[in-house]
Design a protein that fits this description.
This protein is α/β, with parallel strands linked by helices. It contains 14 helices and ten strands. It has two domains: 233 residues, Alpha-Beta Barrel (TIM Barrel), CATH 3.20.20; 60 residues, Non-ribosomal Peptide Synthetase Peptidyl Carrier Protein, Chain A. The strands form two sheets. An eight-stranded parallel β-barrel has the order 3-4-5-6-7-8-9-10, surrounded by five helices. A two-stranded antiparallel ribbon has the order 1-2. Helix 7 packs parallel to helix 8, helix 12 packs parallel to helix 14 and helix 13 packs antiparallel against helix 14. The chain starts with a strand and ends with a helix. The mean pLDDT is 97. Bound molecules: flavin mononucleotide. Flavin mononucleotide binds next to strand 4.
């Protein structure tokens, strides 16, 4: 799959997930065959103010080439300027986040209510990135407050110069409830000629093949990858043998060089719960990890993850 002039090694992509897609998790996704990984959403204004917490989100693994970052905001000048300063191959603009705090500021999915503004943001940012040989993608939903549907919105985004789009088949109002609508994704594929990446409830090889049959260029996996980075292989029918305990240990090792002990222990709490999953013995892991305060207690919790 190609995005602009950038070629991906596979068309299965890791979704940006705030609080989860840290550099360790993205590295593991790449090891298991993700063709592209994105950071979680990063505030364009936070970058402008050189906010320390924002900078921490930009750490990447050497495996992430091409690398992807996702920005959120709604000021075309700020987004395009900040995008131009980043050392990433692909910049995504978040036009799908449904969280009230974000939407109230006019960011995330609120941009689907203002196609003119969305156009200006994409046009300004695409110009900057294309001049540097980089690519721009945009991620959005089925719709937001019924103003415009994804297929029509996609035409606006394409005409502004985006190199690819990702469509999550849920409306803003649905948040994460119900089942993602694949029909709106199929209609979007027909509406534009840039690559369309399908997103929402893609968990199995059958889901992947259904999206390929619809003419999608790739799929993006979010929640299905949590505690399960092997999904980037298994979804394409490639079986892999892994131990969830080893994955969790490796995940910690990948984070340690970049962050403080406190940061890593906190970041790993949610991940360890996913690695433990719903299997027998997972309750003890969860109790242990939530009480962890340092590396020793974190490792003790991880060692409880059942085989
Ligand atoms: C915890 C969580 C955090 C998320 N953070 C982001 C984000 O930072 N940027 C974004 O575009 N979407 C974000 N999403 C949405 C996902 O990228 C994805 O569109 C959605 O979960 C549907 O895909 P899935 O069914 O494969 O999870 C988030 C979703 C979840 C559950």
């Amino acid at each position: 799959m190609r995005i602009g002039n950038i070629t991906l090694s596979s068309n299965v992509i890791l979704a940006p997930l705030a609080g989860y897609t840290d550099v360790g998790f993205r590295h593991l996704a790449k090891v298991y065959g993700a063709g592209l990984t994105y950071t979680e959403m990063v505030s364009a204004k936070g970058l402008m103010y050189e906010n320390e917490n924002t900078q921490a989100l930009l750490v990447t693994s050497p495996l992430e080439r091409p690398s992807g970052v996702q920005l959120f905001g709604s000021d075309a000048d700020i987004i395009s300027e900040q995008a131009g300063k980043l050392d990433f191959d692909i910049v995504d603009i978040n036009m799908g986040c449904p969280v009230p705090k974000i939407v109230k500021n006019g960011d995330g999915s609120a941009l689907m209510r203002d196609p003119d503004l969305a156009y200006r943001i994409v046009k300004a940012t695409a110009q900057v990135l294309h001049a540097q040989g980089k690519a721009l993608t945009v991620k959005f939903r089925k719709s937001c407050d019924g103003v415009i549907e994804a297929d029509e919105f996609a035409k606006v985004i394409e005409s502004a110069g985006a190199d690819a789009i990702t469509v999550h088949g849920r409306t803003r109002e649905e948040m994460y409830r119900g089942k993602a609508d694949r029909q709106i994704i199929a209609r979007t594929v027909k509406a534009v000629s840039i690559p369309v990446i399908a997103n929402g409830d893609i968990l199995t090889q059958a889901d992947y093949l259904e999206c390929m049959d619809m003419g999608c260029s790739g799929v993006m996996i979010g929640r299905g990858a949590l505690g399960n980075p092997e999904i980037f292989s298994t979804i394409r029918g490639i079986e892999v043998e892994t131990s969830k305990r080893d994955l969790a240990l490796e995940h910690v090792q990948l984070l340690r060089p970049h962050f403080s002990e406190r940061y890593v222990v906190n970041a790993m709490k949610k991940h360890v719960c996913y690695y433990a999953g719903g299997r027998r013995g997972s309750r003890a892991v969860k109790e242990a990890v939530f009480g962890a305060t340092n590396y020793d207690s974190l490792y003790e919790a991880i060692m409880l993850i059942p085989d």
